[in-house]
Amino acid sequence: MTTGPDLVTGELTLTGRVTTASNATFVGEIEGVVVVYKPVAGERPLWDFPDGDLASREVASWHISEALGWDVVPRTWLRDGPLGPGMVQLWCDVDPEQDAVDLLPSADVPDEGWRTVLEGLDEDDEPVALVHEDSAALRRMAVFDVVVNNADRKGAHVLAMPDGRRHGVDHGLTLHVEHKLRTVLWGWAGEPLTSDELDGVARVERQLGGELGAVLGGLVTEAELAALQARCARLRSTGAFPEPEGQAPAVPWPLF
After folding, report:
1. Measured on CA atoms in the order 21, 26, 32, 33, is the torsion positive or negative?
2. pTM, 2 dp
3. Are residues 119 and 230 in the same domain?
């Protein structure tokens, strides 16, 4: 009987580094499987996320993605590595011909299939628009971001897969007790959620009283768990995508 690679205890070998990342991020292999590795030791301290570590928040976000049942986040787990404990995530080979989020000249925005988030001027004072595709897969990611209170959904954190799936990555800035939703996926703001989307949120809320809650309790604080429960309840009560609120910027910077 053959078994798959041991992703938890198999040797993790580093093959490269992502130099554009704000925290130490490496590409590696575990028994032939390509992964991303972010050691806790390479995290920069953040004054507004003082509790725990970013790696644990990334893993917690994957567990919530699994509870939703939508495969938003690639498999993510904690384990030891060459630079100490950290987050490990399956590498995703994206389709270079697809862009789920884009910045286009305003005149080039298609009439159908896209949502405009905001408009502005480029360095030549020409009108441009931040847009994202109007797809079920991306809607689910937007719902996921509300649930986990994602403070950093940049365009580059949306991976367009060749088969039409959309994966979200970089979830270290999630699950804060205060409202911190910053995202490029505002195209459905104020619109009703579908029954499928509401069912997903209900699954998370229900599982927080069982195994999911127990797992997350080892990754984030009790107050953050309570805030997660409250966000799920509020989302189901309103039945709609939220509008931007508060004084903080509603989109991350940079956008990509």
Report:
1. negative
2. 0.95
3. no
CB atoms within 10 A of CB 87: 27
d(CA 90, CA 79): 13
If you compute the radius of gyration of the chain from its CA atoms, what whole number of angstroms results?
A: 18
One domain for residues 35 and 139: yes
Q: What angle do CA 131, 143, 243 make, to 5 degrees?
A: 65
Q: What's the average model confidence in pLDDT over 9-25? A: 93
Burial class, 164, CB count within 10 angstroms (exposed 0-12 / middle 13-18 / buried 19+): exposed
Q: Is residue 164 part of a domain?
A: yes
User: Is residue 2's pLDDT more than 80?
Assistant: no
| Domain match, 193 and 114 both | no
Give residue-wise pLDDT tens across range 31-80: 999 999 999 999 998 888 888 899 999 999 999 999 999 999 999 999 99
Domains in the chain, number: 2
